[in-house]
Specification:
The structure is a homodimer. Chain A has a single domain, classed as P-loop containing nucleotide triphosphate hydrolases (Rossmann fold), CATH 3.40.50.300. Chain A is 38% helix and 19% strand. Chain A is built from 8 helices and 7 strands. Chain A starts with a helix and ends with a helix. At the A-B interface, helix 5 of A face helix 5 of B. Bound molecules: guanosine-5'-triphosphate (2 copies), magnesium ion (2 copies) and zinc ion (2 copies).
């Protein structure tokens, strides 16, 4: 709890910085391979004002793969390789921010380490926390990973293009999400087909207006 | 490290117990929703001698869902709900073993908490550690989650039935697995179609012979 108090100090510092720069900051949490990087890539590609207005801080145990993917669509991406830490903490984000020119950005996405457990406990200073769940993972995941889903402001159902192929039970998934995160805004989308992407981007633009 | 030394004491105790009972013990690690429970269900259903010879210890943050699924195919399943712990530890497994009649079992599967990071560091006393990777998660996951894959005795590619639908690059995935786990035995299977299940079960039966 002492460590969490320390984390929260850095989180508030980050939050203040984002607000001072009129920057909408998101924290993306999900299992490995749910499509976080793919969605951030797509968001940057269609962002009014251009991909270079989208900053990304990506956490992974190893590799620069995600940051490289994001740079190749024109986003400003900084990779944090944690070695063994299974989640990002606010002090890591604070340090990363010092390497970025925040005034040149509209949107900051923090892609957390792929993990539906540990990242949930750490406020990074984000304005909105999005938990992603792909249609391939199983409808009961919101019940089985409560801390993540209970902490969500937004829940994003990803890979909707293969929902039918895997026999996805949408009603059951949405019920479980509503049960764990009754006040969360839910999006259903596919990076592959583009379904739901406009709705998602419009939401981000509206959020950005309201923080400014 | 002191905590890990304590874990390893319990792990060795578990390992000794398994060997004394001629019981093949497996530790299943993967992301949430990669198909651990589904594969254990299927393994139990086709196990020579019957599902009731298969014991399972399942770890989850919350719910009894996985243990219930396993019981409904006739396996002997014990659920550990960890609350917040993001991985199973050897002492939890030791405690669970005290509730099971090990002499009545041939196979013990420990289904770890869905998490490709933290569980890797904890020896539970298993004879074989299997890391599961579904074709939907992305071919670079073995590189991005090194501790899990480097610790694997077995790597199982799951959900092969939808490999084509998601454009799975099998060569790239296998290369990455070989890079991180050169001595691991690799299986490719689908619970949905049954592809590769016989090969997997034959491997288990052979492993069980060799520990007896
Ligand atoms: N069918 C389909 N596949 C998708 C979609 N979005 C992403 N994928 C695939 O899902 C896999 C994982 O995508 P990533 O973007 O790497 O997922 P991630 O959540 O960033 O993974 P980590 O950062 O390792 O936790 C890749 O093979 C993607 O091509 C989608 O909308 N539809
Ligand atoms: N298409 C297809 N889907 C599968 C297969 N195996 C499992 N699934 C589906 O994948 C989803 C997750 O399966 P689970 O068995 O719950 O996965 P898990 O790894 O035990 O999940 P956690 O215990 O929560 O980490 C479910 O919707 C399953 O029906 C398969 O071989 N093919
Ligand atoms: Mg990623
Ligand atoms: Mg399971
Ligand atoms: Zn952690
Ligand atoms: Zn952990």
């Amino acid at each position: 709890t002492r460590l969490l108090a320390k984390n929260d100090q850095f989180a508030q510092q980050n939050r203040d910085r984002f607000q001072a720069c009129g920057l909408l900051a998101l924290n993306f949490l999900s299992s490995p391979g749910s499509g976080k990087t793919a969605l951030i890539e797509q968001t940057a590609k269609v962002w009014g004002g251009g991909a270079e207005r989208v900053g990304v801080i990506v956490g992974d145990l190893a590799t620069e793969n995600d940051a490289q993917r994001l740079r190749s669509v024109g986003a400003i991406a900084l990779q944090i390789t944690t070695g063994s830490a299974c989640h990002l903490e606010a002090d890591m984000v604070a340090h990363a921010l010092s390497h970025l020119d925040l005034d040149s950005l509209d949107l900051m996405v923090i892609e957390n380490v792929g993990n539906l457990v540990c990242p949930a406990a750490y406020d990074l200073g984000e304005a909105r926390r999005a938990v992603l769940l792909s249609v391939t993972e199983g409808e009961d995941k919101p019940l089985k990973y409560p801390t993540a889903f209970q902490s969500a402001d937004v829940v994003i159902l990803t890979k909707m293009d293969i929902a039918q192929a895997v026999g996805f039970d949408r009603t059951s998934a949405i019920d479980n999400i509503r049960h764990m995160a009754p006040r969360a805004t839910v999006f259903e989308l596919s990076v592959r087909t583009g379904e739901g992407i406009d709705t998602w981007v419009q939401y981000l633009q509206a959020q950005r207006q309201s923080i400014n």
